[in-house]
Design brief:
heterodimer; A: 633 residues; alpha+beta; 4-stranded mixed beta sheet; 35% helix; 8% strand; B: mainly beta; Immunoglobulin-like
Chain lengths: 633, 233
């Protein structure tokens, strides 16, 4: 009886369950995939798709890109055992800096296609999303053309039909280098008015960002056209690499006009950051201040602590002695090459004086006296010995030196040893070094300050830092305008722009007589240090193979020709402070300095003509025979 | 269970026993070697700086294998027998390599059956003739004659000439302890160029150095070098 009852119940349930239609049962929409029509019906969903595309924006240097992306090129010394290859290598591989992410391009093209097909979005949303995706696509093409020269220009999603058995339809040849620059410039011009005109819109594309990209792209194209003439070997007959010299003036004019649109305020109220009374602190604050007070940054990659988007720049590069995370610090050490290039307040160049005319050491009562009277941006970019960070002072000094020039130091930072003639051990070397080969300490005698986050806890691995990375800022726009005007022969205009940047740093203005190409190269180097410009600037001026010419830098070479565009800089030198010990002498207890090449530096930078445009991988060329090789590789 | 020596020994024995199988392929045994020459005379270059590429067709994707020339201008590779094509990429070396009509480097076909030596004929822009390097009283002096080989539309000027010395036998713009040079415009007689360099103090002391003469050609990246000479001073 019981059995029959159970069977009946089961059969009944089965019957009920099978009563639903086949289609209801078999055609369940997958819950983990959002169909295109749904995704492009809701602005919040579109924004989250766009957010992913923003996250994949490709930078040269970036705070979430690893500290190493700021190192190299002898502008800094890498103080980490695993990264000494940067100063031991004697060349860069031809594949260095290459990028070929057509997956990203495809997804941007798909986004643009789907966005324009959407019917559910409002027209305003649709237009803005579309303009943003086009901005990102142009940005990535700009990044590719800087590294690879002309690349296949794909502006709609390609579809490969395997049934044809022939891929030639989707094999696209490289466009001319100038075509890619023209594309970037044209896209920026086309979308600028579809983007918000708002100086406070920084982490999403704005009119200012589009124009800033346009002026930079036009300036790069112009200088490749002009200075490419000095390296005729760096070109291809099809124009995939190299831009004809007669195009230079048109590009310079475009660069100047786009920059002036930002400068005259038509893209929003951008201006130089002038908030703090101390000019060095003010300069450092440009990179820290994310409030609306900062009208200088134009387009940034923003981060947020406690919300999952943070970076480890401060953890990696904070001073060792005041590290929030014991043993994780001090990797990026600016080199003396960079430090000494900051000019004196009278606008002249000079090495940091370590010896007098007779070759005797100069004694300084304060360790920072040697840096006195320099460009305020020096202390804003570099954390000098005894510099202040998070309310504490860094402890950088290399040891004691005596009357006979001998040295007492240690191979362990902060170690105690008795001085000669005494038995009482005292500290003989700074807690932040410099000690040769001791990682995470200032092996060049300097730490970095730019981007370093003074917020409590910012140096901890768990919390991380949320300082934003500035991709475009107003000072660069001014320098772009100055350079373009200078190259067009309009020095008066160039001076008004470059002198704004200089006066913010406390320097006297240049004049018609003193404004030269060397000055423009120099101003960009110091203003934009550690912002990912070094390589591209040197490439577009065709100075890279001269500056990094593949032979060691002697001390005499280091100290001469400061401020010259063609100055060689192939090895990162350091400046090591020593305490003078000679009781009874007037100079007892004062500081002397020695230019020191860190012992780890055994290689030198060699930039070959084949490095101007990165190697296109053999697999890419095997898959698409229309891709021509780069020159000189 | 504790890991004892005998367990490790047993595991090791098993590993050895299993690994006794033969490899699938024999290692390549044919040695292809060669040098860069102009009319039978070898051309010196900087170590590791002038690459060559070897292609073998018929195995799917096309990609090169290759390496670079030594400072005497030699190369060698262990290869399987077969048909190869060798090129020197554009813009490499202080010489002109044959090109196809389209501007791509023309290839040298090599049919490898056992070890083989080849001479790669190139057209250098200049040749260093009769180099003589002597040492004495803490100085090294080099004398040579620069002969312009390529004339006409492709001719190039001398950017500079340099005498390099080093404590080891690798001598180049990157590897040197001292050098002396002269710019191309300051050379009055191409048939008689003399350069003298002071030998700096060397630690640990040695009474000899290695020296080479070189010419940098304007617009060409790689220098052309004379053979390395060991000189006592």
């Amino acid at each position: 009886m019981k059995k029959i009852f159970s069977i009946t119940i089961l059969a009944g349930l089965l019957g009920i369950a099978s009563c639903s239609k086949d289609s209801d049962y078999l055609e369940v929409p997958p819950i983990q995939i959002i169909p295109n029509e749904t995704a492009f019906s809701d602005p919040a969903l579109v924004l989250s798709i766009l957010g992913d595309l923003y996250n994949r924006y490709y930078d040269f240097s970036g705070l979430d890109n690893g500290w190493r992306s700021f190192a190299d090129f002898s502008e800094s010394f890498p103080s980490e055992n695993g990264s000494y290859d940067l100063v031991r290598n004697t060349s860069w591989g031809y594949g260095s800096w290459s990028t070929w992410d057509y997956t990203y391009i495809r997804e941007l093209n798909l986004f643009i296609q789907r966005d324009s097909a959407s019917t559910a979005l409002t027209e305003a949303d649709k237009t803005r999303f579309m303009a943003e995706a086009r901005f990102l696509r142009a940005s990535y093409y700009f990044e590719m053309v800087k590294r690879m020269g002309g690349v296949p220009l794909i502006t709609s999603p390609l579809i490969y039909d395997p049934s044809k058995g022939d891929a030639s339809e989707v094999q696209v040849a490289r466009a001319k280098e100038s075509d890619i620059y023209d594309f970037v410039i044209a896209e920026a011009e086309a979308i600028k008015n579809q983007l918000p005109t708002d100086a406070n819109q920084k982490s999403r594309a704005s009119k200012g960002a589009a124009l800033a990209m346009k002026t930079r792209a036009a300036l790069y194209a112009a200088s490749i056209a002009k200075y490419g003439a000095t390296t005729p070997a760096v070109s291809l007959p099809g124009g995939e690499v190299g831009i004809p010299a007669d195009k230079a003036n048109a590009y310079y004019t475009t660069a100047l006009t786009a920059a002036q649109e930002i400068i005259n305020g038509s893209a929003g109220s951008y201006q130089l950051y002038k908030v703090l009374p101390d000019l060095s602190d003010n300069f450092a604050a440009i990179f820290l201040d994310k409030s609306t007070v900062n009208q200088e940054s134009i387009f940034i990659e923003d981060f947020r602590a406690g919300a999952g988007k943070v970076h480890a720049f401060t953890t990696n590069d904070q001073p060792y002695s005041i590290s929030d995370e014991g043993g994780d610090a001090g990797r990026l050490n600016p080199s003396l090459n960079l430090v000494q290039s900051f000019e004196k307040l009278d606008g002249t160049f000079a090495p940091l004086p370590t010896t007098d005319a007779g070759g005797n050491p100069i004694y300084y009562s304060d360790i920072q006296d040697i840096f006195a009277g320099r460009d305020a941006r020096l202390a804003g970019t570099v954390l000098l010995p005894n510099g202040l960070f998070k309310g504490k002072r860094v402890d950088i000094w290399a040891g004691y030196t005596f009357a006979d020039g001998s040295i007492l130091t240690s191979d362990e930072a902060g170690q105690l040893k008795p001085l000669p003639g005494t038995t009482n051990p005292i500290q003989v070397v700074g807690k932040d070094g410099p000690v040769n080969g001791l990682e995470f300490r200032a092996q060049s005698g300097f730490y970095t300050r730019k981007w370093l986050d003074p917020t409590v806890g910012s140096g901890r691995r768990g919390r991380g830092s949320d300082v934003a990375f500035i991709r475009y800022r107003f000072a660069e726009v001014l320098l772009n305008a100055a350079e373009a005007a200078f190259e067009l022969g309009d020095k008066t205009t160039a001076l008004t722009y470059i002198n704004q940047v200089r006066s913010r740093a406390g320097l006297p203005g240049l004049t018609d007589a003193t404004l030269t190409f060397d000055r423009i190269v120099h101003e960009r180097r110091v203003e934009l240090a550690f912002e990912g410009h070094t390589l591209y600037d040197m490439k577009r001026w065709r100075l890279a193979h001269i500056r990094w010419n593949g032979s060691p830098t002697s001390k005499a070479e280091l100290l001469s020709d400061i401020g010259k565009a063609t100055k060689k800089s192939t090895q990162p030198w350091g400046l090591w402070p020593y305490k003078y010990h000679n009781p009874g002498n007037a100079n007892h207890g004062k500081w002397v300095f020695r230019e020191t090449l860190p012992a780890v530096v055994t290689g030198f930078n060699r930039f070959q003509l084949g490095n101007y445009y990165s190697f296109i991988d053999d697999n890419i060329r095997a898959a698409n025979p229309k891709i021509v090789r780069q020159p000189n590789q | 269970m504790k890991f004892k020596l005998k367990h490790i020994a047993v595991i090791a024995l098993c590993a050895v026993a299993v690994s006794c199988k033969k490899d699938n392929y024999k290692e390549p045994t044919s040695k292809l070697s060669g040098r860069i020459v102009y009319q039978g005379e070898p051309i010196g270059v900087e170590n590791y700086q002038v690459p060559y590429e070897l292609y073998q067709y018929g195995f799917g994707k096309v990609g090169p294998i290759g390496s670079s020339f030594t400072q005497e201008g030699n190369f060698s590779a262990m290869l399987f027998d077969g048909e190869y094509k060798l090129i020197i990429p554009n813009g490499q070396g202080p010489f002109m390599w044959k090109k196809t009509a389209g501007g791509a480097p023309d290839s040298v076909s090599i049919s490898l059956r056992g070890s083989q030596e080849i001479d790669l004929d190139v057209m250098p822009f200049y040749m260093i003739r009769t180099p003589q390097i002597t040492g004495g009283s803490n100085k090294v002096t080099g004398t040579f004659k620069a002969e312009k080989i390529i004339t006409g539309a492709d001719a190039k000027d001398i950017e500079n000439v340099v005498l390099y010395i080093n404590r080891t036998q690798f001598v180049s713009g990157g590897d040197n302890i001292a050098s002396a040079g002269r710019n191309g415009g300051d050379i009055t007689d191409l048939n008689n160029i003399t350069l003298t360099v002071d030998v700096p103090s060397i630690t640990p002391a040695q009474n000899y150095v290695f020296a080479r003469l070189s010419i940098k050609i304007a617009g060409v990246e790689d220098r052309i070098f004379s053979p390395v000479v060991k000189v006592t001073y």
